[in-house]
Design a protein that fits this description.
By secondary structure, the protein is of the alpha/beta class. It contains eight helices and six strands, in the order E-H-H-E-H-E-E-E-H-H-E-H-H-H. Helix 2 crosses helix 8 and helix 5 runs parallel beside helix 6. The relative contact order is 0.15.
């Protein structure tokens, strides 16, 4: 059976949906729009998203798994908030992700967001990851769909010098939008139910997103 492989963060994993058990387990939700899309087209669904992932994490996960993908597979890349940032932790010898809303923010995290983080940097790094994913999947001849939770990545009003615009223009036609917005903003604008925890869109939003994505999917 051909596969649909989804990459992303908690929105793709399905955090706070009715069947989500534990972010540390291997049991992702089957109510997310990528899972519903896989079921509709009789594809084996593999979710390689992880809650809290940054766009750098998503990119590395794709590269780690590219050799396991076949030309008949479908890849869905759901890019996350651009202000998450990865660094290699030399003490622990592993990649770590800094997130602005983390309840366990360290002094390092606070220093990063106070002195170093900027939207321009975030946009550039995210667009570079998206462009690399686009290029490598095309080179392997693998069909894919990209979405972005964060609307800022394609904002052309602020922090949009020519090098940002060049990357945006090269990617814009390959992005699946939900009413010209990312999934999260679209769900909020449509007043779909949201979780009481972090505020994830719930089953209604994913069902509507699946129907929207399925129209695009069947047209391609």
């Amino acid at each position: 059976m051909n596969k649909l492989i989804a990459f992303g963060d908690s929105f793709t994993w399905g955090s706070e949906l009715q069947d989500e058990v534990d972010a540390n387990s291997e049991k992702c939700s089957q109510y997310t729009w990528p899972a519903l899309l896989a079921k509709e087209h009789n594809l084996n669904y593999i979710c390689l998203a992880r809650p809290g992932a940054s766009n750098q994490t998503i990119m590395r996960t794709l590269l780690d798994n590219i050799a396991n993908l076949d030309k008949d597979d479908i890849v869905i890349l759901n890019w996350t908030w651009i202000n998450r940032w990865d660094f290699y932790n030399l003490q622990e010898e592993k990649w770590s992700t800094v997130r602005p809303a983390s309840n366990e923010a360290t002094e390092f995290d606070k220093l990063y967001y106070k002195y170093f983080q900027s939207e321009l940097w975030d946009k550039l790094e995210t667009l570079k990851s998206m462009y690399l994913a686009n290029s490598i999947l095309n080179s392997y001849g693998i069909k894919f769909v990209q979405t972005s939770i964060d609307d800022l990545v394609f904002n052309t009003e602020y922090h949009a010098p020519d090098y940002i615009l060049a990357l945006q223009n090269s990617l814009n036609n390959d992005i699946l939008y939900f009413g010209n917005k990312g999934f999260y903003a679209w769900a909020k604008d449509n007043n779909f139910p949201m979780s009481k925890g972090v505020g994830h869109p719930l089953e209604k939003a994913h069902k509507e997103a699946y129907e929207h994505a399925n129209k695009k999917f069947t047209q391609s």
